[in-house]
Amino acid sequence: MARVAAGRSLAAEFERAQTDGAAGRDGALADLCYGTLRRYGRSQALVAALSRRSQATEPLIEALLWCALYALESGRYAEYTVVDQAGRACALLQRGRAKGFVNALLRSFLRARAGLEARLGADAAARYWHPAWWVERVRAAYPADWQSVLAAGNTHPPMCLRVNARRNSADDYARLLALQGIAAQRVAPSALLLERPLQVARLPGFAEGRVSVQDAGAQRAAHLLELRAGQRVLDACAAPGGKSAHILECADVSLTALDADATRCAGVARELARLGLAAGGAEVQVRTADCTALDAWWDRRSFERILADVPCSASGVARRHPDIKWLRRPSDIGRFAARQVRILEALWRTLAPGGKLLYVTCSVFPQENGAVVDAFVARAPGARRAPLADGGAAQLLPGPGHDGFYFALLEKPT
């Protein structure tokens, strides 16, 4: 937690811990880390309100307090156990002198917790568990829904499955889940929303490629592309491979999947292989390339369909990566938007006349979504927005059944 507060991602910290042999990503560790980061703004405010020190608290001890406060508020542990273990942790962290301070602050919290709420109410980060600038942007963008958007960002994410239509039907797989005592609801043609998340290893036929884990909102992309057999299709920012796989499950197309990271490209190839979808052959290519560097990868043969799932703030999936809320800065949104414009302009050159490009983000910030698309359409000769095939809204806000996504389908004149 101290390293995340200093700017490291939680995923990088899990990898570091596993490499060092210090810890595995077990359920208890994941709960503590994710739970602490979801409440990070609140925990910071609590420590500031309860600390009587004139000097700043050492980062490692402050991080210990954030974790302990989450443990106390989660209700999963006995209060005396949390206070005791936090004190013992000071010695394990070679910060024995801080034990008295940690013990006193946590006991003060337990005594004064009811009265603290009024003191924290005016602090946006403490009240909504998001940075104040994030709260204000969401409030401005969604005057009627901003509180529900923020609340969704603090919840545990839903777990949705994408049934591999080349291996089995959604109805057949739902019956298989029922036989295993796993409750699921069909929410899209190939999407089954689980009543309760579970470990992937418990999913019948996962290793054999019968099913994948993919958010219901993300599954919308393949259907909005309006795929037909024989089309040349580009997935320009393909990793981790879920949307590429879904494209191939939906139609017999010739797919090129690009990603700038070679390690992530290898992951895409493994995912396609698990699902029994061709990789490395004439119909599917997985290539490491920056999609904007056309000379490095494009053979000058146009694509009928392009999926541009562009890098973004990931503000629509923050509940899956709660560190994002605290690592992002307001200036990052403009930088993402500038990069998104460059990607659109490059990919437009590779799109065939009459072809369609689906622009996708997992963001709820309009600056990365409608603003980018509107500005591009105004500049690109003949470019127009095409209606979304399912008749749904361009912006999906995060909710109980899916994460937050934005979709815009752009059509090139013939």
Shape by Cα distribution: globular
**Continuous helix count:** 17
User: What distance lies between the first and last C-alpha atoms, to the nearest angstrom?
Assistant: 53 Å
| Mean pLDDT over all positions | 94
Name the poorly predicted regions: none
The number of strands is 12
User: What number of structural domains do the residues give?
Assistant: 3
Helix content: 40-55%
Strand content: 5-15%
Radius of gyration (Å)? 24 Å
- Please give the CATH architecture of the largest domain: 3-Layer(aba) Sandwich
* CATH-defined fold name of the largest domain: Rossmann fold
For the record, what CATH class of the largest domain applies?
A: Alpha Beta
CATH superfamily of the largest domain: Vaccinia Virus protein VP39
**Biggest beta sheet summary:** 8 strands, mixed
- Helix/strand-derived category reads alpha/beta
Question: Could you explain how this protein is built, in words?
Answer:
With 414 residues, this protein is α/β, with parallel strands linked by helices. The chain has three domains: 2-127, NusB-like (N-utilizing Substance Protein B Homolog, Chain A, Orthogonal Bundle); 160-213, Sun protein, domain 3 (Alpha-Beta Plaits, 2-Layer Sandwich), CATH 3.30.70.1170; 220-411, Rossmann fold (3-Layer(aba) Sandwich). Helix content is 45%, strand content 15%. It has 17 helices and twelve strands. It has helices at residues 2-5, 10-20, 27-38, 40-50, 59-74, 79-92, 99-120, 124-128, 132-141, 146-152, 170-179, 220-224, 242-250, 262-274, 323-327, 330-350, 370-379; strands at residues 160-163, 184-188, 191-194, 211-213, 232-235, 254-259, 284-288, 303-309, 351-361, 384-386, 395-396, 405-411. Strands 5, 6, 7, 8, 9, 10, 11 and 12 form an eight-stranded mixed β-sheet that branches. The chain has a four-stranded antiparallel β-sheet with strand order 2-3-1-4, covered by helices on one side. Helix 4 (40-50) packs across helix 7 (99-120) and helix 5 (59-74) crosses helix 7. The longest helix is centred in the N-terminal third of the chain and has 22 residues, at 99-120. It is globular, with a radius of gyration of 24 Å. The N and C termini lie far apart (53 Å). The model has no long low-confidence stretch (mean pLDDT 94).
